[in-house]
Amino acid sequence: MTKPIEEAYALAKQKYAAIGVDTDTVLEKLSQIKVSLQCWQGDDVLGFMFPDQALTGGISVSGNYPGKATTPAQLRADLDKALSLIPGNHKVNLHAIYVDTDEKIDLDQIEPKHYEKWVQWAKEKGLGLDFNPTCFSHPKSTDGTLSSNDPETQAFWIEHVKRSRKVAAYFGEELNQTCVNNIWIPDGYKDNPIDKMSPRVRLRDALDQCLEEKFDDAHMLDAVEGKLFGIGAESFTTGSNDFYLSYALTRDILWTIDAGHFHPTEDVSDKFTAFLPFGKGLMLHVSRPIRWDSDHVVILDEATTRIGETLVRNDLLDKTFIGMDFFDATINRVAAMVIGARSTLKSLLLGMLSPIETLKDAESTGDFTTRLAVTEEMKSFPFGAVWEFYCQQQNVPAGTEWLTEVKDYEQKILTERK
Ligand SMILES: C[C@H](O)[C@H](O)[C@@H](O)C(=O)CO
Ligand SMILES: [Mn+2]
């Protein structure tokens, strides 16, 4: 422990204690939270199955920063580096295309054995894993996937999603913790469709087939991720947010809320308490949309802060799986992971460091003056001192020192990659 960090924490602790917040308890609580680090930030969403296939599905990565991972071993090394700079014990989120096998297989052939090395690594590092079927960047995804009106194409994707659920359940069993299997498809139309019903009925029925096999909730939970629009599907998204909200509620599965998948002025955090009185639980894709679903690296902006605050203030952490979803190739990809994860954790810490009961009391007695005054004053409380102490406690660099480590890694490892 460095002395200045300890001293600053001692002062901060007193200041928070004066308003009824016990910082030691807060840090203990924060250390229990897992965020799921999306592996696809490490290689621009290419994966190892068809790495030469262009990224499709209306999502896009910009930039060409040197050193992206091109093998599973490289990606794991990058994740190791990133995780060593993020306080706490977390999960890694894989897409199906991140197989680690010498076999030449297609998406409708994946099996748990193709991901064994990921599981072995996760066990060694004490990590959890999440999973996603990859319903894009594939020759069969150009005209729809699960909602395709071509029975052969649709059957291919149903098989892929069924197999993805088996892989997810295998992860959960092996790692003894829930693996979320998140289903997102890019199906939609560039221009106004005439028939808006049939694609959605096909999607509903296809999903019902995918979900037929039952798994233990302790190992695998299904989640469905809606979206407003994608590039090339601006007029109609089959798996829209309303569609999946209804689907998740009626099938008792998780609803995935991606921060970039709504109208820009919507407050995504406001959706948590609209869904959870009825729904099983949420999966979050914490992201940063700039004008569109641009998947910028998460920072501690107002939207992210509101996500953290809402989860904490409303006691939603037990029902919410927190993942991140961004991919930026204009900066060092390992740094991107670290920045996004640290910022997400900071939003949770900020939420925990408020005098929630005092604020709730003020609100329930109609004292909105106190509610506004205290929340504003909290913004200049010594949150940074608590964060730095937490980093130190968790044996990760407290401040920008982590960047020195990433720069060093870049020089020694990333720049050597072809
Ligand atoms: C890789 C994608 O981000 C992802 O699977 C999906 O979650 C999404 O957000 C598409 O916009
Ligand atoms: Mn997403």
Automatic annotation (TrEMBL):
Originating species: Trichococcus flocculiformis
GO BP annotations listed: L-lyxose metabolic process; rhamnose catabolic process
Compartments in which it is found: Cytoplasm
Pathway where it operates: Carbohydrate degradation; L-rhamnose degradation; glycerone phosphate from L-rhamnose: step 1/3
UniProt cross-references to NCBIfam families, sorted A to Z: PRK01076.1 (NF002203), rhaA (TIGR01748)
Cofactor annotation: Mn(2+)
UniProt GO cellular component terms: cytoplasm
GO MF terms, alphabetically ordered: L-rhamnose isomerase activity; manganese ion binding
Protein task: Catalyzes the interconversion of L-rhamnose and L-rhamnulose.
InterPro entries the UniProt entry points to: L-rhamnose_isomerase (IPR050337), Rhamnose_isomerase (IPR009308), Xyl_isomerase-like_sf (IPR036237)
Identification of the protein by name: L-rhamnose isomerase
